Amino acid sequence: MTCNEIDKLLKSYLEGETSLAEEKILRDFFSRGDLPDKYKPYADMFRGFGAMASVQLEDRHFEKKWSKKVKLHTRHGRSLSFFSQWYTITGVAATLLLAVVLFVPVKKLPVINLFSHKIEDTFDDPRQAYAETVRALLIISDKINAGTNQMKDLEKLDEGLEDAGKMLTFNKGLKDANKLSKFSENQVDHNNL
Amino acid sequence: MKTQVFKTLLLAMCCTPLLLSAQNNPMDKLFQKYAGKDCFTSVSISRDMFQLFAGINTDEADKDFKELQEMITQLDGLKILTYSQSDSCKGIDFYKELTAVYPMQKYTELMVVQEKDELVNFYILKEGTRIPELLMIARDPGETVVLSLTGNIDLNYISKLGKSMKIDGLDNLEKIEEEK
Description:
The complex is a heterodimer of chains A (193) and B (180). Chain A is mainly alpha-helical and 193 residues long. Chain A has helices at 3-14, 20-31, 40-54, 62-103, 110-115, 126-192. Chain B has one domain (26-179). Chain B has six helices and six strands. In chain B, α4 (63-73) packs across α6 (155-179). Chain B starts with a helix and ends with a helix.
C-alpha cells in the first residue's frame, strides 16, 4: 500500500466517494502502529470507527422498539396536523365568508335572491327600456312643470298685487295733495280777507 | 359536538340581518300582487339596464344627450304600475290599496297638480340633501298610475328635461331606433 494510493483513497473518502471495501482498506491501514506523521490526525478517527463497529448492543430488539416508537410518534403527529388542517379550513372559510359579506353588496348575494322574489325587467332591449325611461322622465318633468308654471301664474298675481300696492300709496299721495290744495285755498281765502 | 352547535348558532346570528334587509319595498309588493293581472300594465327597468344605457353611443357629441345619459346611469330602478278601470276588474280601489301599502308618513309631499279631472301627487324620500326615491301617483276617473323612480335623483334636472329635451331627446331616440 503506497502513500500515493492512501492519499488518493483518503481524498475520495473525505468526499464520500469510497466503496465499503476501500473504506476497509483505509481502516486497516490506520489501525497499524507505524503510521507516517502526516496521517496521525486521521488515525484517531478511523480507530474510533473501528471501535464503534465492535460495540455490541445488549438489547437485541432495540431497533424494533425504536422504530415502533418512531411510528407511534409520527401517528401522533399526523393526528395533530389533522386538527390543524381542520382549523385552517374553517379559518379560510370564515375569512371568505367575511370577505363576501363585506365586499359584495347585500342585494347581490344569491342567498338574498332566494328570499326576495325578483321582479323581472320588462324590456330585454336596452334601447326600448331607454325609450320608456325617457318617456317616463318626460311625463314627470311635464307634470312638475305644469305645477311650477301655475306657481308662475301666482307670481304674476303677486306682481300685480305689488303694483296695486303702489297704486294705494299713489292714492294716499293724492289725498295729501288734496289736503294741500285745501290748505292753499284757505290761504287764498285768508289773503282775501 | 358543542362547538358545532355553537358555530351554527353564530352563523345564524350573522345571517339574520341579511334576511331582514331582504324585506321588499312597497313597490315590489304591489308588483308581486298586480303585475300581469287584468287591467294592470307594468313596466320595470332595473339598475343593470340603466347601466347598459351608458354604452349607447351617439355619433356626435350631443351635450344634452350626454347629460341625460349621466343622469340615467345614476338611477337604480324605474317601476310603473298602471291600473285602467274596465268591466273585467271592477271593485279594485287601487289608490286605497296603494296608500295602504306605502308608508306615506315617510314621504314628503312635493306637489299636487290638478289638471282638469286628473290629480297628480309627487312624493319624495329625503336622505339629507339626497333624494333616493321619487314617487308619482296620478289619478283620473278611469286610471291610476303609480310611478317610482329610485336612485340618485336630480329633481332640477328632471324638471329642466321637459323644457330642453323634448325635441332633441326624441330626436336621439329615433336615431337609436334606426341604429338597430
